[in-house]
Write a structure and sequence with these properties.
By secondary structure, the chain is mostly helical. Helix content is about 70%, strand content about 0%. The relative contact order is 0.13.
């Protein structure tokens, strides 16, 4: 599995997580002792869906994977604010923070690997694409495949 495949998986994960945050924001808030932040969890759900759609709809998902990393930082900061001694759900919050840290590490790894070849995949991935003839030139986002990318 290469980083482009991981990015696609992260795109689908983002959409699923975002839908969960929107539909079950109240339940998530209750599980974390963040009942007063349901609106924020739902807003984060919209952000997740946007990132997922961006990853899946672009030939270069790199900026959208970086958007996930930035979103992860917001998630960690928000959830960490609930990690207090007076929160009866403190243990659940700790587990959520561990999961968030793990997902953040995967997102950051994927974004760095994608960026390794000007955002089009790692050198190894790019060489394998070139070797099988599936791509002869790089495309910029939004640029038709028949026009080569121009550099300035």
């Amino acid at each position: 599995m290469n980083e482009l495949q991981v990015a696609r998986g992260l795109g689908w994960f983002s959409i699923g997580l975002g839908l969960t945050e929107i539909v079950a924001g109240k339940q998530l808030g209750q599980a974390l002792g963040m009942e007063d932040k349901t609106w924020l969890l739902r807003l984060f759900g919209l952000r997740e869906i946007a990132a997922g759609v961006g990853i899946l709809s672009r030939s270069n998902p790199t900026p959208w994977v970086w958007a996930r990393v930035a979103g992860d930082a917001l998630d960690i900061a928000s959830v960490a604010s609930a990690y207090t001694d007076d929160n009866p759900k403190k243990e659940t919050v700790g587990v959520a923070l561990a999961v968030l840290a793990s997902v953040t590490a995967l997102d950051a790894w994927c974004a760095k690997k994608l960026q390794g070849d000007q955002g089009l995949g790692s050198d190894r991935t790019h060489r394998s694409i070139e070797a099988d003839g599936s791509s002869r030139q790089h495309r910029s986002i939004g640029q038709p495949s028949g026009r080569p990318r121009t550099t300035r």
